[in-house]
Design brief:
The complex is a heterodimer of chains A (about 400) and B (about 160). Chain A has about 400 residues and is an alpha/beta fold. Chain A folds into 3 domains: about 5-175, Aconitase, domain 3, CATH 3.30.499; about 180-280, no CATH class; about 285-410, Aconitase, domain 3 (2-Layer Sandwich), CATH 3.30.499.10. Chain A has helices at about 5-10, 15-30, 50-65, 95-110, 140-145, 160-165, 195-210, 225-240, 255-260, 275-285, 305-315, 330-340, 340-350, 375-385, 395-405; strands at about 40, 45, 75-80, 135, 170, 185-190, 215-220, 245, 270, 290, 295-300, 325-330, 350-355, 370-375, 390-395, 405-410. Chain A has a 5-stranded parallel beta sheet, sandwiched between helices. Chain A has a 4-stranded parallel beta sheet with strand order 8-7-6-9. Chain A has a 3-stranded parallel beta sheet with strand order 3-2-4. In chain A, strand 11, helix 11 (about 305-315) and strand 12 (about 325-330) form a beta-alpha-beta unit. Chain A is globular, with a radius of gyration of 21 Å. The termini of chain A are far apart. The model of chain A has no long low-confidence stretch (mean pLDDT about 95). The N and C termini of chain B lie far apart (about 30 Å). In chain B, strand 7, helix 1 and strand 8 form a beta-alpha-beta unit. A 9-stranded mixed beta sheet of chain B has the order 1-2-11-10-4-7-8-9-3. In chain B, helix 1 runs parallel beside helix 2. Chain B has helices spanning about 80-90, 105-120, 130-135, and strands at about 5-10, 15-20, 20-25, 30-35, 45, 50-55, 70, 95-100, 125, 140-145, 150-155. Helices cover about 20% and strands about 30% of the residues of chain B. Chain B is α/β, with parallel strands linked by helices and about 160 residues long. The chains are: A alpha/beta (about 400), B alpha/beta (about 160). Chains A and B meet through helix 2 and helix 3 of A and strand 3, helix 1 and helix 2 of B.
Chain lengths: ~400, ~160
């Protein structure tokens, strides 16, 4: 691998032992993937942020970097923690879990990472431009940055992400290169007036069809709210391993179908119509019609616009006392919801906000829920193993309806 | 690192295969193979205390990978998988060598972290001309020489 003079010096320890260790990791990974050199990145997003996913090993890795006096050299955000850092006790989280999270929090602070604890860094000031190279983890953020913002990042892995943040570089391979960003699968959407639920179901379908390939989507309008793309991308990154998709006319690199595919010939389209929509929704539900214990929304973290929609639906309503209704979001969004009066409306109806974490990376399995409902495709995919409950997927309107009657009718 | 395709030596009662390919991580280990014919995702798949595979969707479910040569086509699943490999190494319940058809970032990072942070060397080799998944069966004795890029297979029985 070709290194600049500065990089050779970093590798020799010129910027301290933490940077040296980071460079050693980056060079070894780069050589495995035949990366010709390292590319400077504008920002990093870290997935070593909660005990459930990173174990004691992850904490020790962060602490080692902190011990070596390492600091992020680029703006670096962190994924959700494993607890609501303020309300963990009233939410029933054990002290020993909380202590693990505090150790992560302390190391994150020492490393100068921004403790936003969210999977939507692009909604809290970490906004890449078209063509920016990034080192991001969090599959739902990676796919959003690549596909909607036109930035370039691989799905970095836990551990490598920290090295990228400290060294400010990543191996130049994969989705950083033009030739690896062209479409490989074509999906033709036959449904008119796609709702959010339809977008998310399309995302889930796309992941099952494309695996880790790059899908190109034709037939969806250009005037959708951002949340539709956030939810769709998250679902496809979970059900498959999609890291980049093209929507003709929206993805910066895909002004036309031809541009989306580049030199390769355009493949036969896979239809996504009413039949596929129905079949996919069935696949996303593992619950059986009947009582639900909780509705969990905010995967990815709910935006202010989504909180607003929910407040409208819950205004003057009463959620069944048997049902928990939890909204996971970025801390600042709760403040805004409070200022807007949405928080009061939602809480009056029986809903509850949880900051800093989500149903997937916190210890929701401890609650013993048998069945839950969600409006998230990503949550639908992971809930059976992470919440250890049956899951029903539906629109937010369906979620609210089920919460009020305490039952999902299928 | 990239030299050589592979050679097959037939001896009296067993067949020995040697093939040389790309080194993912240096080191040397000889031991018993455990083979998954399908892709292997580490995220939430293993009990780190014992090294036993717990994921019901994984074909090695119920088997122990600790101390063995883990052979599988490619990695899959969440990018936090590297943390599971690091945790196995921290506890000493890790696999001792790895052979893949094609490696990817989760596996490579996990193995590098195991070495750099927990002092556990897991030699790993990938990108063969001969398909290691077709050649190697669970129970075969495998030599993984991550210093030369050579993998040797002594068939079981």
């Amino acid at each position: 691998m070709k290194l600049t003079t500065e990089e050779k010096e970093m590798l020799a320890g010129s910027q301290g032992p933490g940077c040296q260790l980071s460079m050693e990791i980056l060079v070894e990974v780069g050589e495995i993937f035949n990366a010709p050199y390292l590319i400077p990145v504008r920002s990093a997003h870290i997935v070593i942020s909660n005990y459930k996913n990173c174990f004691e090993a992850g904490i020790e890795i962060l602490e080692k970097f902190a011990f070596l006096q390492s600091k992020a050299s680029i703006p670096t955000t962190v994924d959700p923690a494993g607890i609501d850092l303020e309300r963990w006790k009233e939410l029933g989280m054990p002290q020993d879990y909380a202590e693990k999270e505090w150790r992560i929090g302390l190391a994150v602070k020492k490393l100068d990472f921004i403790p936003c604890w969210t999977c939507t860094p692009y909604l809290c000031g970490q906004v890449p431009k078209v063509g920016d190279h990034l080192a991001w983890t969090e599959s739902s953020a990676v796919i959003f940055a690549n596909s909607i913002l036109g930035a370039r990042t691989n799905r970095e892995t836990g551990g490598l992400d920290v090295a990228c943040a400290i060294a400010g570089r990543t191996p130049y391979h994969g989705l950083h290169l033009d030739e690896n960003r062209k479409g490989q699968v074509l999906i033709d959407v036959e449904i008119e007036n796609m709702t959010r639920e339809h977008f998310i179901t399309l995302g889930y379908f796309m992941g099952l069809q494309a695996g880790t390939k790059i899908p190109v989507i034709e037939g969806i309008g250009r005037n959708s709210p951002l949340e539709n793309y956030i939810g769709m991308g998250a679902a496809s990154a979970a059900s498959g391993g999609v890291a980049l998709y093209h929507i003709v006319g929206i993805t910066p690199e895909a002004p036309s179908l031809k541009m989306a595919f580049g030199q390769t010939s355009i493949p036969k389209p896979i239809p996504f119509g009413v039949k596929e929509l129905k079949e996919t929704k069935t696949k996303m539900c593992t619950a059986i019609p009947g009582a639900i214990d909780a509705v969990m929304v905010g995967c990815p973290h709910y935006t202010v616009a989504e909180i607003r929609e929910l407040a409208k639906l819950l205004n003057m309503q009463k959620i069944s006392p048997r049902v928990k209704f939890w909204i996971y979001t970025y801390k600042n969004n709760i403040l805004l919801a409070q200022r807007l009066g949405y928080k009061e409306i939602i809480e009056k109806a029986g809903g509850e906000f949880i900051a800093d974490t989500c149903m997937i990376v916190s210890h929701t399995e401890l609650y013993g829920f048998k069945q839950i409902m969600t409006d998230s495709g990503k949550c639908a995919h992971y809930a059976p193993t992470e919440v250890q409950a049956g899951v029903a997927f539906g629109s937010i309107e369906e979620c609210v309806k089920a919460a009020i009657i305490g039952e999902w009718r299928g | 690192m990239e030299n050589g395709g592979g050679r097959i030596e037939r001896r009296k009662d067993n067949v020995r295969y040697y093939f040389e390919r790309k080194v993912v991580h240096p080191g040397f280990f000889r031991g018993e193979a455990i083979v998954s014919r399908r892709g292997f995702g580490f995220f939430r798949a293993i009990d780190p205390v014992t090294g036993i595979v717990r994921d019901k969707r994984n074909e090695l479910c119920g088997q122990n990978i600790a101390g063995r040569v883990l052979v599988f086509p490619e990695g899959r699943g969440s990018t936090s998988g590297s943390m599971m490999i690091a945790e196995l190494a921290r506890r000493g319940t890790h696999f001792k060598a790895m052979v893949n058809r094609k490696t990817e970032s989760i596996l490579a990072t996990g193995i590098i972290l195991a070495d750099k942070f927990f002092g556990k060397v897991i030699p790993a080799i990938h990108d063969f001309e001969i398909d290691p998944i077709e050649l190697i069966e669970t129970g075969d004795i495998i030599t993984v020489n991550g210093n030369t890029g050579e993998v040797g297979v002594r068939k079981r029985g």
